[in-house]
Amino acid sequence: MADLPAMFDLTGRVACVTGASAGLGQRAAIALAAAGAKVVGVARRAEALADWAEQTGESAATVAADLSQRDQITDIADRIATPFGAPDIIVHAAGINTREAADDVTPEGWDVTLNLNLAAPFFLTQAFVPAMKAKGWGRVVNFASLQTTRAFPGGVSYGASKAGIGQLTRAMAEAWSTSGINANAIGPGFFPTELTGPVFADPERAARNAAQTCIGRNGALEDIDGPLLFLCSDASAYVTGQILMVDGGFTAK
């Protein structure tokens, strides 16, 4: 049996984490850096990224960019590869939820949601696949959702994008895993982040969500660390095309 700590050791790896300015994206960036990776954090808010990078030290770099602008993906990819070289690991945590009711969905809200939540993970990964193939090793971790398989109020565009992430993850695995590039997704339950701010602002709603889980509580940011490191490391060498729900058993009930 392989040495367990070594299986999760990311020393010498380069990771890119989108949505690294806050929430689960920033937690992912912190966890990967702690495991030994050099991490490039990507988000729109340069100041928040800079705060994270300052706390992390020399193993961190930042790229302030709007990934919803599809015509900028190639340029953004070049900027991501500049500090440490092309990444071996890509974590797609950036996302938006406009929470528009079905009757009120606008073309603008639809486009920004699908571009950021679904198109960016594909095209940004595609830009780095040649370098991963050359190394024979890569890890792609998409962010799915409870809405990958369930319908929530106000979630038409968001739910469509996250259902798409489920199939995108399987399609990435089919396309690239024979080259050593494993693609999987994490499906978070309810965690206290900016994206779920409206949920946690309502204590009664937050309590109902906690009661829906098998464990009996909502997620804490540190709950993402283990599943993420598993999917980003050699520990998941024979795991690809899967969605790992990190939801306390919410979807089991």
Automatic annotation (TrEMBL):
Superkingdom of origin: Bacteria
Alphabetized InterPro entries for the sequence: NAD(P)-bd_dom_sf (IPR036291), Sc_DH/Rdtase_CS (IPR020904), SDR_fam (IPR002347)
Coiled-coil ranges (or none): none
Molecular function GO terms recorded: oxidoreductase activity, acting on the CH-OH group of donors, NAD or NADP as acceptor
Pfam families, per the entry: adh_short_C2
Family that this chain belongs to: Belongs to the short-chain dehydrogenases/reductases (SDR) family.
Name this protein carries in UniProt: Gluconate 5-dehydrogenase
Gene source species: Yoonia sediminilitoris
